């Protein structure tokens, strides 16, 4: 029975780099066996997740990029703060627009579109972060945001434009990396400040009149990342500029909306918006692996005695 | 310094320990709040070794299982001492404020 459990733990070591497995494999498996409950036949789900995380960390460590694992929670707080700030602005300034008489429009209660439901969910995520419960609420907010598209298509209710929804979804995906039970007050502070700003600018605006908000959010997020990157680097913190690489996608999606506007029209054409979204996603998706690969390559050295290449 | 790192260094301050011993010691030190799993523990030990705060001590075979012991380095002792001082300063400041609050509170009739 014990041997079977050991074999099962050993098979999970495939998450780790081969050289690490050879050096540490026995020690890892023996420690799991020491901790196993009497009669336990299979690794617990928490152990599988633990080994998967540990393996990822070792792959990153082998490429001198272990700061990435530490950078993700920091990036997640920034992403959630930006997402809730935008949600506050959209809810207060865009969703309360007065629909002109004679326009055929199905309102969602006191709000203009289905987006209000999503924005309220995002604000609840900021509140949940105060109790360390943000991750499940972020997941719900993310699903509600995505669901506005098919629901709007199937019903007579309107939804926010895609150039508002897509950056929100991108921010939400990174907000999911906030560690479970991590108490974060930053999102609610930023959301309250954004609500105050939205009340001040509130007029008869709809999303199309508020495109500058996306650009301001991109600049604000980029500034925070720039300052934190400089501080991390000066302190020798392994996170360095990795949060900037991680959040490059959402920043590009927020910033490029303005650039996608053609001529007189005050909002992006569909083709322009799709092109900027694709370019942003591809550039951002390539940035982190490319950085990790380059980091590992820079540090590869060739052994003078045997000529074998190694990371060191 | 994060709490698991602090607890690992604290556990090693008394004597060199192996992985299983460290996990049980950290759980005891934290009153059961911090439940390190082996994947997380060895990842943390690797990073502490990279930073020169811990190092391998010795290996033993017990009941057919390899026990690799880890010990605190001089640098690790210094880092732990600095963190203890920082935390103590914070605790003293918090205690002072709580005491001041207690003395300012009007007596309930």
UniProtKB/TrEMBL annotation, chain A:
Superkingdom, natural source: Bacteria
Record's keyword annotation contains Transmembrane helix: yes
Keyword list, A-Z: Membrane, Transmembrane, Transmembrane helix
Residue ranges crossing the lipid bilayer per the database entry: 71-91, 111-130, 137-156, 162-180, 187-207, 213-233, 240-260, 272-294
Keyword Amino-acid biosynthesis among UniProt keywords: no
Protein name: Uncharacterized protein
Native species: Asanoa hainanensis
TrEMBL record, chain B:
Coiled coil residues, start to end: none
Pfam family of the protein (one): PadR
UniProt domain Transcription regulator PadR N-terminal: residue ranges: 8-80
Stated name of the protein: Transcriptional regulator PadR-like family protein
